[in-house]
Amino acid sequence: MSADTLALPRGRGRSPRSLPRRRVWAGAAVALALGGVVVASLAVGTSEIPLGTVWHALTAYDPADPEHIAIVEKRLPRTVVGIIVGAALGLSGTLAQGVTRNPLADPGILGVNQGAALAVVAAITVFGATGPSSYLWFAIVGAAIAAAIVWVLSSRGRDGATPGKLALAGAAVSAALFSLVSAVLIVSREALDAMRFWQVGALAGRGLDVLVPVLPVLIVAAAVALASGRTLNLFALGDETAAALGLRVNRARLLLAIALVVLAAGATAVAGPIAFVGLIVPHAVRSIAGLDYRWILLFAAPTAAVLLVAADVVARIVARPGELQVGIVVAAVGAPFFIALVRRGRMAGL
After folding, report:
1. Which of 118, 123, 143, 146 minimizes the C-alpha distance to 133?
2. Nearest-angstrom CA–CA distance, 24 and 10
3. Which residues of 175-207 are buried (b: 16+ CB within 10 A; e: fewer)?
4. Disulfide-capable partner of 198 in 72, 272, 281, 315 (CB 3.0 to 4.6 Å)?
5. For the chain, counts of helices (H) and of strands (E)
6. How confident is the model over 316-336, as a mean pLDDT?
């Protein structure tokens, strides 16, 4: 029986033959939505810029025109950062749920967010880091170390790093790291002032100078994630079945955990810990892509990019002339959306 057939909920009147057609329509809809939010991101801000001016700024840039400067030097890099960060969060969330077989998993389950946060606090208080570009690699290294600790703890024992042990070890390590971060912030006003905007997640002030250093590793990790569909499908059958079908379970889980950490840590380092994107996007995608992870991964990246860029556009509108942090908007939208998915019974079992 194919993964597509398994993906169809019983009693909903859907046929396996309808999956390819749904995927085509959904792909077209996601592509149009991504184009729409990109245009909105370039045109909407503290001041509205006509679409004609946006087009001219992109095709015939005039460095003496203030609106062209705002579009090309401010809004365009911010939009690119939003797309890349959103795609990375979507892929990392899908990997987290597939690797742990936990439908409530997100990148934070491996301690990624809190590991990055502790490293940023250390960068600020010990090394005097002053902005995202200066503590970028601290966040990545901190996230990787935290994930490695979770892996080592969960690997102890005869069964190795099982999904349940990964989730428990991740929760324990995250709680411990959160306590350390809170303790440092209580005694260090400098760290508190620098961390309070980073911790809620933001795209404001994030340009290509922050993205470019981490982009190569994000591309490699994204390629690994997109190629992992068959492996995640085998994980969904259980470790014993996957091993019987020839998969080296622990080696495959370690490789995908590394890709997960790189994607989540890179996104977190650039934009701060943005919640809910990696949690809700895989569930939303399963309603149109089925349970085949090859398709879930393919849809998750652009869908998450649409969500994050759209939230950033909303963040610029609702508090004019100022703006909210995008992490706040994503949380406000993501929490009720996820609750609605659960209540409608559309959250797929893994």
Report:
1. 123
2. 22
3. eebeeebeebbeeeeebeebbeebbbbbbeebb
4. 272
5. 17, 0
6. 82
Q: Kindly state the DSSP code that residue 73 receives in the 8-state scheme.
A: I
Taking phi over 0 as left and psi of -120 to 50 as alpha, with beta for the rest, 287 belongs to alpha
Contacts of 18 (CB under 8 A, 6+ apart): none
CA distance 119 to 253: 25
345 DSSP assignment: T
State residue 86's pLDDT score: 94
DSSP, residue by residue, 138-164? HHHHHHHHHHHHHHHHHH-STT-S-HH
**Average predicted confidence (pLDDT) for the chain:** 82
Q: How many CB atoms lie within 10 A of CB 345?
A: 9
Helix orientation angle between 18-43 and 277-289, rounded to the nearest 10 degrees: 140
Burial (0-12, 13-18, 19+ Cβ within 10 Å), 49: middle
Which pLDDT does position 2 carry in this prediction?
A: 43
Average pLDDT over residues 198-208: 76
The region, left, alpha or beta by phi > 0 then psi within -120 to 50, assigned to residue 16 is alpha
Domains in the chain: ranges and CATH: 3-106+203-343 (1.10.3470.10)
CB atoms within 10 A of CB 51: 12
On the question of pLDDT at 159 being above 80, the answer is no
At 215, phi and psi to the nearest 5? -60, -45
The model carries a pTM of 0.84
Kindly indicate the confidence band of residue 93, based on its pLDDT and cuts at 50, 70 and 90: very high
DSSP characters over 191-219: HHHHHHHHHT---TT--HHHHGGGHHHHH
Q: Note whether 139 and 112 are within 8 A (CB).
A: no
User: Could you give the CA distance from residue 121 to residue 178 in angstroms, rounded to a whole number?
Assistant: 11
